[in-house]
């Protein structure tokens, strides 16, 4: 990835009639970067991608591609490929013709066209379907054709809108690896939209988390997971979801239902808390579960359910105040009904403002 900014959104908004879909989007993508946009359905991901592709204009604000206002770049010189969420295949062209079309338009030589197309057909398991029309394909097959059509163009900027959502799990992993390999080989700038957090974490150099038409956080997968900027981001990433508890701060101690869960740390001293009410976040894999009480911070719980995933076990613990939390552990010896003790990995505890839900340490 170079340091050059290739794509820039400055205060972009988008309204449909009177509804404000994109509230204010600011974004800089570097040349060769793999940026993932992740957010719930309806948050404005496709709309943003369509604006970047030049298919729709922003209501206000501007989009710069290589420093030029995108509305002033003709579609021919635009050098952007897009894989559409709804495939947008030409219904009267075969799979092969669909894949070949844009290469013909851009006057790529016949030999080169054939070489690229054979490789793509092979990669996406489409060789057997090359002469079929889109109407004769399953949803997953159509999606693979749409993906292939974007890939063969080898454009400078590659936009993908949920390109793997309808592909079977096994083939999806292969297609994901293929997209990654393609990126490592060609260093295209990629903006990739998904609502699948695992896909986002696996692919993105950075992830932009979008909600309500606003970027909530844009950062590396590591920072998004471990230092989320607010409770929305913390809860949106990670399965099972991060546990949240209402806690109070009193004289160097964090209390949950009058029991201490963290005490006298440098962190708590630094925070200089304005309010004594906080929201504590702890990921299930950072909950420690044991049979005996061995530490002052161990609190009693009862095992409600155990789900064994083979590689790890997921416990639901009933804790004081009739609340429950989830714990992920390996080699669990616990069964439902067991009386146990739990505590938190202290340095993994996240603290959020009770009112505005912002991470107090970001
Ligand atoms: P996402 O891709 O994140 O699921 P979209 O960008 O497709 O979300 O849509 C965001 C919101 O904008 C949705 O509420 C959708 O109904 C609305 N929307 C999208 N396109 C149009 C349009 N052409 N006219 C009116 N509303 C639209
Ligand atoms: Mg969409």
UniProtKB/TrEMBL annotation:
GO CC annotations on file: ATP-binding cassette (ABC) transporter complex, substrate-binding subunit-containing
InterPro entries: AAA+_ATPase, ABC_transporter-like_ATP-bd, ABC_transporter-like_CS, ABC_transpr_FbpC, ABC_transpr_MalK/UgpC-like, Mo/tungstate-bd_C_term_dom, NA-bd_OB-fold, P-loop_NTPase
CDD domains: ABC_Carb_Solutes_like
Matches recorded under Gene3D superfamilies: 2.40.50.100, Nucleic acid-binding proteins (2.40.50.140), P-loop containing nucleotide triphosphate hydrolases (3.40.50.300)
Alphabetical UniProt keywords: ATP-binding, Cell membrane, Membrane, Nucleotide-binding, Translocase, Transport
ABC transporter domain sequence ranges: 7-237
Superkingdom in the source lineage: Bacteria
Pfam families in the cross-refs: ABC_tran (PF00005), TOBE_2 (PF08402)
GO terms, molecular function: ABC-type ferric iron transporter activity; ATP binding; ATP hydrolysis activity
Protein name: Glycerol-3-phosphate-transporting ATPase
Species this chain originates from: Liquorilactobacillus mali KCTC 3596 = DSM 20444
